[in-house]
Design brief:
Helices cover 14% and strands 39% of the residues. The protein is built from two helices and eight strands.
Length: 144
Amino acid sequence: MAADSPGDAGPAPRAASELLHGRELSASLTVKDLRGSVAWYRDVLRFEVDREHEREGRLSAVSLRAGNVRILLGQDDGARGLDRVKGEGFSLQITTPQDIDEIARRLREAGGRIDTEPVDTPWGVRMFRFRDPDGFRFTIASER
């Protein structure tokens, strides 16, 4: 099978020392209503605002964090169309030692859109799936 054919990830690494050793993953999401999204992540999911970014005197992005999880929310400038679909084809997972049912309850009470109610999985974690106000998909899962 050729390296560029579907299902082939290319040649295997030569040595373990060449493998990526990531410590955390940060995401950057473009949102329709920056202030509204910041309030949602802060008040509903309980992220904290780490830093505000301005461009030409206007708020253009906000860095949020929850432990080692970092999300940058950027204001959509409309250049690609304000009504474009966002968040299709992928989801982000946050792993936490906190009570999954309590987080889901808080999200639901705030009007959040839960796609999958909390469930115990065969691989030993409790998890649920939801979408943020722009439609980006997330999973919150317990530690094993």
